[in-house]
Amino acid sequence: MSPYLAEQESKSIFIIREAYARVRKLAMLWSIGKDSTAMLWLVRKAFLGRVPFPLVLLDTGMEMDEVYAFRDRLVRDWQLPIINHLCPPLDQIDAKLPPATRSAMRKTEGLKTLLAQESYQGILCGIRRDEQGLRAKERVFSPRRSDGSWDYKDQPAELWDIYSTAYPDKGHVRVHPLLHWTELDIWEYTKAEKIPVCDLYFARGGQRYRSLGEKNITFPVNSDAQDIDAVIAELKQTRVAERAGRSMDQETEDSFEQLRTQGYM
Amino acid sequence: MRSLRDTSPLHMVIVGHVDHGKSTLIGRLLHDSGSLADGKKEEIEKICHARGVPFEWSYLLDAFQAERNQAVTIDATHLHFHSAKRRYVIIDAPGHREFLKNMMSGAGHADMALLVIDGAEGLQEQTRRHMVMLSFLGIKNVMVIINKMDRIDYSPAIFHDLSKQVNDMIVTRGLVPLGVIPAVAHAGDMLVHRGNNMDWYMGQTLIEALDQVPVQKSNDKHPARFVVQDIYRMGGVRYLAGRAEGQPIKIGDQLIFQPGGETSCVQEIKVWPDQNILTSAQNGQSVTIALEDRIFVERGYVGAPVQDAPPLRDHVRLSLLWLSDKPLRVGQTYLFRTGLSETPATVQAIERVIDTQTGQDQLDQVELVKNTAGQVVFTLRDPLPLDPFTGHVRLGRAVIEDNGDVVAAGLINLDGLLPVSQGTKNTSPHIYRVSHPVTHDMRFKKSGYRGSVFWLTGLSGAGKSTLAMAVERILFEKNYPVYVLDGDNVRHGLNADLGFSAVDRTENIRRVGEVAGLMADAGLIVVSAFISPFQADRDRARTAAQGRFHEIYIKADIGTCESRDPKGLYKKARAGNIADFTGIDSPYDIPLYPELTIDTQTQDIDTCVRQIFTYIEQHASAFPAPGYEKDL
Hints:
The complex is a heterodimer of chains A (265) and B (632).
Chain A: H1 3-22, E1 26-29, H2 34-46, E2 55-59, H3 65-78, E3 82-86, H4 99-118, E4 122-124, E5 141-144, E6 172-175, H5 183-193, E7 207-208, E8 221-222, H6 228-237, H7 255-261
Parallel strand pairs in A: 1-2, 1-4, 2-3, 4-6
Antiparallel strand pairs in A: 5-6, 7-8
Helix pairs in contact in A: 1-2, 5-6
Chain B: H1 2-6, E1 10-16, H2 22-32, H3 40-51, H4 65-70, E2 77-82, E3 87-92, H5 100-107, E4 112-118, H6 125-137, E5 141-147, H7 156-172, E6 176-182, H8 206-210, E7 225-234, E8 237-245, E9 249-250, E10 254-258, E11 262-270, E12 280-281, E13 286-291, E14 302-305, E15 312-322, E16 333-338, E17 341-354, E18 373-385, E19 397-402, E20 405-413, H9 440-447, E21 452-457, H10 464-477, E22 482-486, H11 487-490, H12 502-521, E23 525-529, H13 535-544, E24 549-555, H14 558-564, H15 569-574, E25 596-599, H16 605-620, E26 630-631
Parallel strand pairs in B: 1-3, 1-4, 4-5, 5-6, 7-26, 21-23, 21-24, 22-23, 24-25
Antiparallel strand pairs in B: 2-3, 7-8, 7-14, 8-13, 9-12, 10-11, 10-14, 11-13, 15-18, 15-20, 16-17, 16-19, 17-18, 19-20
């Protein structure tokens, strides 16, 4: 592993351990994508191979078949403490929202019902700053109000790595151990550590998924990258945005902003 | 390409007055260096078109609709880009004065700052303010862009004049100027390409200059530190999770762990997967270590080579920026946090108040108001091992919290402050302390129990005596040398001469505090159950116990206590038969920073007893049951 990746890794382990030391009831969101699987690997590194809090899949029933198969394999092989949490059906979500945003909102609502049931005080979430402009403005420890919403206009000061884990009454704190990683970092780390990833990331018939979401709102990109080395080589050249295949980001100027401020990941 | 990705990116914060073109410069730099995703420019064109405004580069960074609507950056953004030579992380911080905290959150990590100045407007309020801020965050290197040269007809004379002004300002603030570059950000002149309008300028373009700035290397030459983050237990072994700072920590190194002061050698450095065997932990590396001996260590402890350990400090000076609406004043108490340790800290002196705009001392000021800078000395309740910022960069940074909010960030400066010296509590000049040949530490090593005071405080009826007696029973069964000092019992003997006036109450607690301290020094586990309504009295008891004091707040509101009324005292007080009754006609100071809070209102007795017992076991026994460490 390069000294740079080792540095990224140590920063993430520090954040994960900080969450575990300071937040009483913790869970981690696992979307089964490359980022949260890398985060899961870092959690295992932080705790000497163990996963001392539940992994939550916010399940809409709409993930691709390969994603579910990959989940089942890893849960079995790594003996993961998983909670498969079902999200509310689409007809319970605000019908005025644009279609893809509305679909994505199911996860936000699913997270809310989970928080209400389990009263978690901290949620680890594998977002990165380079994915999207709004995520670039996140804190590592980001408080959420009781309805799950993000008050981006008044975020607390976060200095260096002296993290505050405070959150409003009945709210929780989102913890973002991968905020400082880039897409390419994740792939190089995945390669260096031989972390398994879902096959959908690799090209078949001239297309691959660059970002995995639900079937109805996620689309593959043109690519010939059939293995991890080819993916890394492609990313060093590409000028296509990572989330170009995610419809909910593009429906309106502020569709992703609406999702995020209301509690989306 | 390979080498480009192997080294750390340069972190650069962009600062400058609002509207001087920071966001435009970043957008253009990303575009011209080929770092923008396809379609990004078109997306912004679409947004601008829909809004009926000309093309606006800053929309790239101002991701919130509110930011675009108001044309201001609300929160800091981090962006990755690369030149042909190296990678960068750009931190775009908002320029508005009221957004100082967001800017600081963004700027903290930066290796350098890029200051953007509008050539037509010159040095403005925030230009100056940001320079003071950088010096207080410890960011030394500053490169300058004189932007909007087109608005001053590309005039070399104005450029040279401004360059001189800004260089003077940078040097005056104790910062290091890295050069001044004329540019037109919206056209891209002198960023990546030279453009055709400033042939008179012979210096480097921005990207050429940036490529030569070194990434700030952190302290890997300073003495080793191991900062304990947590304690895990696996396969019967206790592992200290933590981060190495400074020189490497190696297997076999003997470390002293402060503030406890016990020493042991590093037996193992463990990481997962097991095949990654480590013999040393490098600067900045998060690892777990096992020690040869079972010494007392907890989160926040700092391991260091015995001959090079940071001495314990009960005074610290911070050069800080104050962010709270409530001014900082002498005598106020906040939470001081550095590394992974924290302790309540009281403002002892405000040595300097600095106007962040002019950088000048404000001699007539006795408080720090929002967005000013200052130099403040704090008295720490619990002594901590501290390193100055000039020694260990990461360990020399601190924040101040008030009620859970970060209200200041600062750098530790220990110049002229003496470390804690042992056993010099002053009394009459004719009384000389005789040093015990048997020390507290020797007693601990022999018995396996650390004499300590566990001070239960709370309203009458909160459950102090009930809990103290129940905990004593359990500890006794487990062979702990334990004794309960109870309010009512002590008033029958030691304090039989005292009543309930404020003066007598203070004296009551003073005597009990001294007795408890002596008993703890003799090796006993003392659990005390006194209302002890005044924080000042409890603080005095803490001092008497010489660092072996644990304030435990037994929490229940007055309504709950009154409904319990086990001794019928509330009824009597309400009837006017007892004067100065705490909670009715005499105040109770809720503990500001108790070591432990036990909520007897919502929890049953067994839960409360278990919580107190576990806490005492963790802090007073050399061999606490598993559970003290987190079982992985």
